[in-house]
Specification:
Layout (H helix, E strand, L loop, with lengths): L1 E4 L1 H7 L5 H12 L7 E4 L1 H13 L3 H13 L5 E3 L4 H16 L8 H12 L2 E5 L3 H4 L3 H10 L6 E3 L1 H8 L8
Parallel strand pairs: 1-2, 1-4, 2-3, 4-5
Helix pairs in contact: 1-4, 2-9, 3-4, 3-6, 5-6
Length: 172
């Protein structure tokens, strides 16, 4: 089972202590899948990290982005790439998400991250980005299905930890 992580989650993982660490650990422990769980960073997430590391306005954010890039593999997060045809498909899906107002029109990268996660058959996308996390889940699901890709469950690290911690005994 693939679980996509957004740029903001990777930046939070570069911090010594953040709820993102708990969310990733929880996903690894609690998701039941015969083949296990693989966390992935979609192409747009990798592009954003590279940009932030090289040209980010905030020195602290540049340092976090660089640390995230250097530690992806150590953290067990696989960089995800899509075949060239897949890049065109994600563009079409992303445009539909924006055209229908599910993701704001100016949030192009956010729409690409959702589209890439869906095209890669990720079951879950972990993000702290409100443009994605607060999007209308049913409209997003319908749009993704119209595009012949699976629905992606979107959750924030805080919600993951709150809803699926060992205290609640819920399972995936």
């Amino acid at each position: 089972m693939l679980v996509a992580v957004d740029t903001n989650v990777l930046l939070d993982l570069a911090l010594p202590k953040d709820v993102a660490h708990d969310a990733v650990e929880l996903v690894r422990k609690r998701i039941k899948s015969k083949d296990g769980v693989q966390l992935v960073a979609p192409p747009t997430v990798l592009d954003e990290l590279h940009f932030l590391a090289a040209k980010g306005d905030d020195p602290k954010e540049r340092a976090l982005a660089l640390k995230a890039l250097q530690n992806l593999i150590r953290w067990g997060i696989k960089p995800l790439d899509l075949i060239p045809v897949g890049h065109g498909i994600t563009e079409t899906i992303a445009r539909k998400l924006r055209d229908r107002g599910i993701i704001p029109a100016e949030e192009v990268n956010d729409s690409f991250i959702v589209a890439e996660a869906a095209l890669a058959n990720c079951a879950l996308l972990i993000t702290s980005d409100a443009h994605i996390a607060d999007a209308d889940a049913s409209r997003m699901s319908l749009t993704l299905k119209e595009c012949d890709v699976d629905t992606v469950l979107v959750m924030t690290p805080v919600r993951l930890v709150r809803d699926f911690s060992s205290k609640t005994r819920r399972s995936w």
